[in-house]
Protein 1
Amino acid sequence: MTQSPPESLGLCIYEIDAEDRIVFCNDEWDVFALANGGDGIVFGNINGKVLWDYVADPSSKDLYRRLVAQVRNGRTVKFRLRCDSPEMFRLLEMRIFKTDAERVRFTTRIEVFELRNAEVVNASDTGEPLVVCSWCGRVNIDNQVWRDVEIAIPQMRIFERAYLPTVSHGICPDCYANITDLLRTAD
């Protein structure tokens, strides 16, 4: 059931300096991090650290770096991305823009969220991780074939395995192409 975002979840804001170090997060950042098990990424723990240390997937890291470079050249970037939790589907809007000569600001707000039954997919596994697109939430099911999680899990027979896979994040070819096109049009 699609619902309006809870009023307790406001606009999350963080900023990086000229060396890409995190120098500001608003209170909503910490509220969101703590509500999603991210004790290690509250502002007190990440202040002064390089943003890219928190982006694991090389393709996503490359795209975000390219977006930040565009922003530093005077462009404002706005896009939607998925940021799900086991209990919730979330569609966010992210906006990236320059605040002054040194800083770049990221803002995210929840546009849509939908409660769902929690499915545990983080458990011990001796095989390959389940790769989920950080932008759209689709799952890589077989080399470059990506499907919505609701289709991928039964198709891959995830819950019939002896161990559930660990989850890793990446970016699917469609999202990579969309962001690359966005960057190209800025040139």
Protein 2
Amino acid sequence: MLKSAIIVLLLLGSAAAQTRILTLDQAIDLALDNSPALKAARTQIDQNRAQEITAGLRPNPVLQGDAQFLPIFNPGAFSFDNFNQVQQYDLGVGYLFERGGKRQRRLQAARDQTEVTRLQINDAERNLAFSVAQEFIAALLAKANLDFATQNLESFRKTVDITETRYKAGDISQGDLLKIKLQTLQFETDVSSARIALQQAMITLRQVIGYDAVAADFQLIGDLSYQPLTETLEQLQATALQQRPDLAAARQSTVAAQSQISLAQSNAKQDLTTTFSFSHTSGVSSSSFSFNIPLPAFNRNQGEIARTRFAETQAVYNAKAAENAVLKDVEVAFEQAKADESIVNLYQSGYLKQAQESREISEFAFRQGAVSLIDLLDAERSYRNTELAYRQALANYAVAVRLLRQAEGIIR
């Protein structure tokens, strides 16, 4: 008996381990860790860091050598004396000295571009987090609708039972009994539709999180609840200007553009190539030193310097445009959240309670024979529509708040 109980517990523990129970924050974390598209985008950071290595490399020294006056067409002349007295051998080492701090400027430009890429990836994470939150809220709405439809069906079945009792007692006609039984089909259809909607919402949420990240039968923790907004528009906009990664990326692009100007100016400096050579000619050994440097009479990299300056101006304007877009995003999201909040408050201010009381009164009166079947069904319909609309309003408000947080630059 004990052995059987242990086996049952182990099986239950295994089933529990396979079922992932998710909160919204956990769903966002899983999506950020498992999204293939996000993983692919993150490789851009590694690619840029590899380019930093390339930018920081120094020029390789150049080894050069030659042998002259070899008696290739007179093989009999090959001898030590011929090699020592007649032929000429040269061996030299050359090195390019970069002037103007080119290496340091290249490295700084590469680092600035890596930072731009990192901020762009952060923005992709922000957008993914909102997508997960939106699908999570849709799943919570579907779950709430299924719970409500199930409760409604059970409640209506009790009404059907009472109606059958009244029919047997002769209080209502058979026609009214059939009508109310047929109405049960609507409630059963609601349950079926709500169950399908929940399954579809869970599948979509799993796809956004990552199929490999959660079990097929994962469960959600959370409900559609109302939390009033406490921040002002000015506070939200100030936070967004500090935290939005896309704005930070646009601002960092101006820094990267300045680095490109510095690099272009450095590239205008002409590099010095030096060579040290050893020569052996006609039995005499000698050494020589040489250098060469281009004279910047015509090409002083004027075009690239001008281009990078215009690129900096473009980056400054883009950063300003991004700032304006951030302010607009926050204001639009704030107004939408306030509008959805007012709708939720309307339901909570009395309409929700009135619909419930109307249904309860009609149901009680119908049991007592004081109202007709049509009045009861009308009250049931009004209550059902009001409750579903209220849940939809809560979901709309929750999505609007998440959109506001996304506009603010907050992931969780």
